[in-house]
Each structure stands twice: as C-alpha cells, then as structure tokens.
Specification:
The structure is a homodimer.
Chain A lengths: L2 H8 L9 E3 L6 E3 L6 E11 L10 H18 L3 E11 L5 H17 L3 E9 L5 E11 L13 E6 L17 H10 L2 E6 L4 H12 L2 E5 L7 H8 L7 H7 L6 E6 L3 H11 L5 E8 L3 E6 L2 E6 L2 E5 L1
Parallel strand pairs in A: 4-5, 9-12
Antiparallel strand pairs in A: 1-2, 2-3, 3-6, 4-6, 7-10, 7-11, 8-10, 9-11, 12-13, 13-14
Helix pairs in contact in A: 2-3, 2-4, 6-7
C-alpha cells in the first residue's frame, strides 16, 4: 500500500455532518456554518525537519514556509485567511532563541496578510523539529474555487515560473492570496490548485476531480531560472523542463477558465500584476490523462514525467 | 528558560485581528466571524509516541485519545465540536492496518459527537508516530465560558474522580461535552477548564486568569479507584491525594459558580447525570495561591504539590 492508497483508504468513509460542503480531497475543507455571505475554510499542514527543510535552514524561513504552505492552500480556494494555531514538536535539546525566530518568521508573514495567531502548543518530538499549522479562513459564498470544475476547452494557466524550488524559493515563496482573490472576483475560474507536488502531479488532481484530461504545450511551460541554471551547469541530472514538471514546492497557482476568456485574462493580469508572470500552458480535453505537445509530436505524461511517445 | 517561560515569550506579541475575542491562553481560541448567534472555537492538540502513549498502546485507543483531548478543550468552553482535520506523522516503516485502526478510533468518537472529519495529511516523522488534530467548534454567543471569570466566594466543582489516569483512563476517557453544555445552559458558570495537567496546575490557570486564589478541602477532592489502588498496594510512591492533585490527563471539568448556586447545582446534576460524580472541592478566595485545608490546618499548594504548613 503506497501513500496515496493509504490516504484513499483512510478518507473513504469519514464521519461527516450537514456543515460539510467539501471535506478531504480539495486544498481546504469547505464548511457552511450559516454565515449569510461567507463559507469557512479549514486546513492543516505540517513541515518536518529533514523532510521539508534541512537542519541548517534559517529558523525565520522555516516559520515562513510553515505558515506559507497553509496560506497557499487558502489561496487555492480563492479564500482569505483569518486565524492560525501553531503546534511545534521540539527536540529534547533546543535553543529557545531558535524557536523565537521560527515564531518571528510565522508572525511576519501572518501580519502581512492580517492573519491572527491565536495560540497553539509546544510539545516534545525528541529527534527532530515538527511544525503543524491549522488555519481558518473564509471565502465569499459562491466565489470558492474547487479542483472539480475544469471543463473541456478550458485554457490552463499557471502563475510564476516552475522548478528548482529547493535552491531556495521553497523557504521564501509568497503565497498567491491577492492574485487568487482577484481572479475569483474578476473572472469565472473553473478549477484551481496550488502547486505543491509539481505541475505533473497537481494537474492530475484537477483532471481526476473534474473527469477530464489536458494537453500541454511544452514551450509554454514557464521554467524558473534556478531549474535552467541547474540543468545548464550540470549540477543536476534533471532536464530543466522535467524539473518544472516534477520538482514540487513551487506554490504557484494552477487554474482553468473558458478558452474564450484567456486573452482578456492575460491583458488584465499584465496590467494588475506586472511583476508576476502568467502563462497559458495548454487546454483541457475530454480524454483522460495528460499529453505534452512539442515540435516532435505529443507524448503522454505521468505524475513522475513522460511515459512514451504517442 | 523552561517550557512555560518559552510559551510566555512566544505568545507575548502575536499578530491579531478584529475577529479575535480570545487567543492564546484559554482552552480554545474564541473568534467572532459575524454569525448572529454563535462564536467560533479553534483548537489544536498533538499526541506523540513515547510521550502521550506507549509504543504498545492499541491504535484505536491512540486515535480516541488524540481526538478526545481536542473535544475536551471544546467542552471546557461549553462549545459544540463541528469539524476536525487529522495530521499524522508516520515512522518510515509502519503497518497500514495500524493507521487504519487509529482512524477507526478517531472516527468512532467523532460519530458519537457528530464531528465531521474533513481531511488532514499524512507526512513522515521517521522515529515515532506524531498525531496533531485541529478542531473547529461553535459556542452559543454569550454562553462561552473562559478561565478568567472566577469570583471571590465562588464554589469550585470538579466532575468525576482524579488521579491514576495512566493506568488506562487516559486512553479511554469520555470528553465532557454534554455535561459542559448543560452546565452553561442551566447555570451561570463563571470559569471553566478541562483537567489535563492535573488539578493543582490547572486550578492555577483559572486563578491566574481571574486574579483570585482558592481554598480546597482535602476530604472533598474525589480520588479515583486507580490512584487509591496504586497507593494502597505500594505500586507507586505517590500518595493517593497527591496523585489526584498532580497526575494529569483526567480530562474532567473544573469550574466555578456563585456559592449560593452550589446546592441547586448538586441537586440538578444528580438528577441529570446520575452516573457521573460532581464534587464541590472548595471555594475561591481573594488572596492569590491555593491552600488545602484538612483536620491539621491549611497548607499552601504549588503546581507540583504541597509547599509548607501555614
């Protein structure tokens, strides 16, 4: 049983109640508690030393990343974050100053997006630092964007540039909260997700939830400077395009909207967010799976990279 | 810097916003998102292998305890739990069946109290199991009970029997949700907390938050059969009364209300909850600290036990 099979089994028959509009399986849980104009978003996310950051990562950046990951999930639903709780499992021997700096990184990012830190817990995790953050947010009723709304002939968009995040960006990324809310207010976005596992894997989440497929245009996928540099200098065996597809931790937005709105979106975006690239990388198609088109034809794409020439 | 000093430093200047009615420092965070009749409660709690349960604890009971601790905190605010998210850090090698059974324990307790499990995360924590649960709840506006409302001449009450929880009860306790809500609906409860650190420590949280002191009557403190048996058979150096004061993980309710309401409460309680003991164990006084009265006089009590005869 691999991780995804285990999760599928664990989440198969979870208890529910009448407040739940969307539970496990989207970026956040979506709850209706009776607010006339808003729905609630609930999310948790954990970062673990040696898995999500190295022992020598600066503590402020560890805190930034821990909170930023949750904020990125709120962004993926076009939500607004409200309040967070911080759970820290501390090794037996730790420097209090180190923990204070982690909180400093969390607090700085929280202030930027007016998120209240309303408590939490310190406990013991003897061998390594473990940080779990719980986040409450809201989304204007009717403006939430799920993974399941992609439609055939939608254009597929991605913000920013992909790949090579481990070179540094994974500790410093800006959650795309402002951009996601603007999108939901000005365009009819059909489906959205934030890129945490990598374009190839996260696009599949949208496709499966929406029962559609996708065709990507290879030259349109934006590749980060870090991924290009790693490929060019040979510091890494992975080609730049493969890195953009599978590296993960980009924390950019991936979304779809009707193909007819694509040009208008690109024009408005350039005016509103001149500093952040927006790329149309392909389109939604009826047949399941992902294909990538380049000058040599199309190839099928798995979550882990290419499968074969078709 | 000890744990409490660290927490004091971390929580000194946390970011806040206009939704926050109570942040760090009570059983749950209390938020006002504009629901006409309700406030929101937010809580996280973690259990770690080797700290909160032993390696050989049955997985269903580990799940029960993990969720039960959060529910007990919702109870301490007189709230109703709505939805929870489960974060599990798994060792490198684990039995999927073991994780499924943990979820079974969580789900069974969730169903009992109509709590939806709306997702979560599995991640890696190589050396030991780490479970963090985030809980959203509600409380009727005006019926929330904080730690800070205790008044001089209040009677102090505790549910159940205390001490010796490690013999088994800490994995099987029933969160006092129904009882707490009944209390808030029928009586003017001034302050409440759930007993997780032990009566001596948790009473101090109420006293400090309320700027008052307490006098306990030694013979009135209900001692569990487990604590008495451990003391009698000499399987443990701790006296039964000391165990009731300091063992922790009782997950009973400790609360105060006006002394004049005490008899009426005891009568109503016996009728409503005949199977659960309710004990009046002392009163709130003006001078700070806790004293314990017995036939030999009064002694000061620290969080860790007696200080001296006065």
């Amino acid at each position: 049983m691999n991780e995804f099979e285990l999760i599928a089994r664990l989440t198969k028959e979870l208890p529910s109640n009448q407040t739940v509009l969307a539970g496990a399986g989207d970026d956040c849980a979506l709850l209706d508690l009776g607010l006339p104009d808003k729905l609630l978003l609930l999310k948790t996310d954990a970062v673990v030393e040696g898995i999500h950051f190295t022992e020598d990562a600066p503590p402020g950046k560890i805190g930034h990343k821990a909170l930023g990951r949750c904020l990125s999930d709120i962004a993926a639903m076009a939500g607004t974050p409200t309040a967070a709780l911080i759970t820290i499992g501390l090794p037996k021997y730790f420097e209090p100053e180190f923990v204070v700096k982690i909180y400093g990184g969390i607090s700085a990012l929280a202030k930027k997006f007016e998120v209240a830190i309303v408590g939490g817990e310190t406990t013991t995790n003897p061998e390594r630092l473990f940080i779990s953050i719980a986040m409450l947010g809201t989304v204007a009723r009717g403006r939430q964007i799920l993974r399941s709304g992609a439609k055939v002939n939608d254009a597929i968009f991605v913000t920013g540039e992909l790949g090579g995040s481990q070179k540094g960006r994974h500790l410093e990324f800006e959650p795309r909260l402002t951009e996601a809310r603007w999108l939901s207010e000005h365009f009819c976005i059909h489906a959205m997700i934030d890129l945490s596992d990598g374009l190839a894997g996260d696009l599949q989440h949208i496709l499966k939830a929406s029962s559609v497929g996708a065709e990507l245009l290879k030259t349109a996928v934006p590749i980060s400077r870090a991924a290009k540099s790693q490929a060019r200098t040979g510091t890494r065996a992975k080609a730049a395009f493969a890195a953009a597809l599978t590296d993960g931790e980009d924390f950019e937005l991936l979304f779809t909207l009707a193909g007819g709105d694509a040009v208008k979106l690109l024009d408005s975006w350039r005016e509103k967010f001149p500093g952040l690239k927006l790329s149309c990388i392909g389109k939604i198609v009826a047949s399941a799976g992902v294909t990538v088109r380049d000058k040599n034809g199309t190839r099928a794409l798995s979550e882990h990279g290419y499968v074969h020439l078709s």
